[in-house]
Amino acid sequence: MNPILRLDRVEKRFGGLRALDGVSADLTEGELVGLIGPNGSGKSTLFNVISGVYRPDGGTVTFRGERIDGREPWEIFARGLVRSFQNPRLFAGMTVLENALVPARNQRGERIRDAPFPKRWEGQEKALAETALEILARNQLKEVRLNWATDISGGQMKLLEVSRTRMAEPQLLLLDEPTAGVAPKLAQEIFDGIAAMHREHGLTFLIIEHRLEVLLNTVERVLVLHQGRILFDGPPESAVKDAAVIDAYLGE
């Protein structure tokens, strides 16, 4: 089976610093994979390269058999590769519900030829709103759906960020620390929601997370990045026993 994502000797430099130093890895469709490593190991840089925020200085990124390295972020998003950010990137002038609706694909009301004619798109808008409300409810956001995105808690902002990725109909989801800054109980609930999305929709996930107690109990496989290189690739129960991983990360 061809991988949904293939990284082949990916490099990224910032001046004399090699943030990514020949990263190679494959993700199979439907996998739930964690990406861990010390601060500064290159995790977020790798996400930025995959999603088109940065152009790699070497190597290739292939998504569903097509090279995407060097493409614009919107082009990569259009192909079904969706990401979240460690610090939620919400639209301050919109409500929670409106934020959730932004990533929905092929909205007829956004087309110039259709926008002046509500009958052409109001049915789709209603269906999208119902889907968004269902996703928000599953992520404990129904009661704040009409609040401004700036008037909800930090934990709710993280939940909204995850909700928006689901509305984008992703084929591959990159989640950058989905539980950063939230209480332990909410962190577990966020990962329970991720596991449910994976189980119910067969989505492929690559997740950066420092809360190993929730990550390693959820993912099927873990990649350990250290000094811009893949140090370990295998099941989570083996990662926690690996001497190199313990020395580089778990022993911190």
Structural shape? globular
Largest sheet: 6 strands, mixed
| Helix fraction by DSSP (H/I, runs of at least 4) | 25-40%
**Percentage of residues in DSSP E strands:** 15-25%
Q: Strand sequence of the main sheet, in spatial order?
A: 6-7-8-3-9-10
Work out the helix count. 9
- Can you count the beta strands? 10
Distance between the termini: 37 Å
The class by helix and strand makeup works out as alpha/beta
**Alpha carbon gyration radius:** 19 Å
How are the SSEs ordered, and which strands pair?
Blueprint: E1 5-14, E2 17-27, E3 32-36, H1 43-50, E4 58-63, E5 66-67, H2 73-78, E6 81-83, H3 96-101, H4 122-138, H5 154-167, E7 172-176, H6 184-201, E8 204-208, H7 212-215, E9 221-226, E10 229-234, H8 236-239, H9 243-250
Parallel strand pairs: 3-8, 3-9, 6-7, 7-8
Antiparallel strand pairs: 1-2, 1-4, 4-5, 9-10
Helix pairs in contact: 4-5
What does this structure look like?
With 252 residues, this protein is an alpha/beta fold. The protein has helices spanning 43-50, 73-78, 96-101, 122-138, 154-167, 184-201, 212-215, 236-239, 243-250, and strands at 5-14, 17-27, 32-36, 58-63, 66-67, 81-83, 172-176, 204-208, 221-226, 229-234. The chain contains nine helices and ten strands. The radius of gyration is 19 Å and the shape is globular.
Provide tags for this entry.
34% helix; alpha/beta; four-stranded antiparallel β-sheet; 252 residues; 10 strands; six-stranded mixed β-sheet
